[in-house]
Amino acid sequence: MLDGVPVNPAEMAQGVAILPPSAGPAEPDPANALLLM
After folding, report:
1. pLDDT tens across 1-37, in order?
2. Complete DSSP assignment for 1-37
3. Of 9, 12, 10, which Cα lies nearest the Cα of 1?
4. CA distance linking residue 21 with residue 37, whole number of Å
5. What is the pLDDT of residue 15?
6. Residue 21 pLDDT
């Protein structure tokens, strides 16, 4: 995900749903990135 690029909630949800729960902490998660902002 590039900074400054708007993200559609539907696309973000799809990306998060595809990632397994164990991959969340290991790699930058779009949802976590938005929450950290």
Report:
1. 556 666 676 666 666 655 565 555 555 666 666 665 5
2. --TT----HHHHHHHHHHS-TTHHHHS--HHHHHHH-
3. 12
4. 21
5. 61
6. 58
What's the pTM value of the predicted model, to 2 decimals?
0.22
CA 10 vs CA 6, 16, 19, 26: distances in Å: 12, 10, 15, 23
Whole-angstrom Cα distance, residue 28 to residue 25? 7
The whole-angstrom separation of Cα 7 and Cα 4 is 9
1-37 burial code (b ≥16 CB/10 A, e <16): eeeeeeeeeeebeeeeeeeeeeeeeeeebbeeeeeee
